């Protein structure tokens, strides 16, 4: 990967250029808009046409039967089942700590205020197909929804010419998915947002996908809620002279292999480490089955920045706002307060990013593309909604009536003021 060594100001400018690129997606936007309109109007028929066109699969039925799911679970290697169950336990124990309670406040005489927290009724989860299968993502999307109390969790995933991945179906059973449909791409997002003859609409759509899926989620937002607009995966590593180059390189490649547009970034105050990690990545990438993908990510999106000191490293990485951030420094946890922008943080030499991908428990559905500046990881809160409530006695309202009518008339809303005054008109 390219090594950049410059002043902090210049590095910040280069990071802004590198990480704020806006892809020209006019063709994708237009295509997705047409797909969504077609599915909204023609339902199942449109979906089947698109699956034939895009995935080369003729579908008689869109829904995966319970018998198919059970058979896939039975056919999945016990070692895989055990690993999924371990992940489920850890994901569950972590996300149970996120549950929020409703509250009621009655401290002011005659006034009751509060907030009622309830789960969404139905959620759709998109599970990618294509070049890799992600049973772990099913657990990460579904378990928080179930902890929140969502009654109906629908999974959509592209059909495959040789059948759905068995581990994906097994993970769906373990996580507690209620319905599974074989539909992918923008047409899957449209079906969840608008409903079809077979697929009832949902209230929210979560899960990662390609540019067409991400664009579709953006276009249906407002019709339904979405988790975030996710882009290619990212990993940032902050490391000093104590880090092991082969381990840093391996961690950077763990995300580079996801996508040609993935972004592996190392920031260090040690030029020798930078050189050694670069050499290790060149060596290790040749050993990967997904070498072509990882090499493209290294060449086009990755870089190593050499800074004056570790404080500058955190300043620079906060500007990147990476999806995943590893801190490979002694006493790594002591640096936690210096991290302002990151999706998920991995502290210490043994906290390799794949720990979080699979079994640690924190969610791996994370903000990308610098959106960790304002987005958060997927969690239980994303599957709940808040409803506020208030109750006033007549005497309590009388105490505040003048303030209400004053503000109403300042805003030119006379009917607002009269609605309050009507409670005190003589009869």
Automatic annotation (TrEMBL):
GO terms for cellular component: cytosol. Zn(2+) binds at residues 255, 258, 357, 416. Coiled coil: none annotated. It is an enzyme of class 1 (oxidoreductase). Its cofactor is Zn(2+). Pathway: Amino-acid biosynthesis; L-histidine biosynthesis; L-histidine from 5-phospho-alpha-D-ribose 1-diphosphate: step 9/9. NAD(+) binds at residues 126, 187, 210. It comes from the Bacteria. The active site is at residues 323-324. It holds the Pfam family Histidinol_dh. Binds 1 zinc ion per subunit. Gene3D superfamilies: 1.20.5.1300, Nitrogenase molybdenum iron protein domain. GO terms for biological process: L-histidine biosynthetic process. Its EC number is 1.1.1.23. One of its GO terms (molecular function) is NAD binding. It catalyses: L-histidinol + 2 NAD(+) + H2O = L-histidine + 2 NADH + 3 H(+). Substrate binds at residues 233, 255, 258, 324, 357, 411, 416. Keywords: Amino-acid biosynthesis, Histidine biosynthesis, Metal-binding, NAD, Oxidoreductase, Zinc. Belongs to the histidinol dehydrogenase family. HAMAP family: HisD (MF_01024). NCBIfam families: hisD. Catalyzes the sequential NAD-dependent oxidations of L-histidinol to L-histidinaldehyde and then to L-histidine. This is Histidinol dehydrogenase.
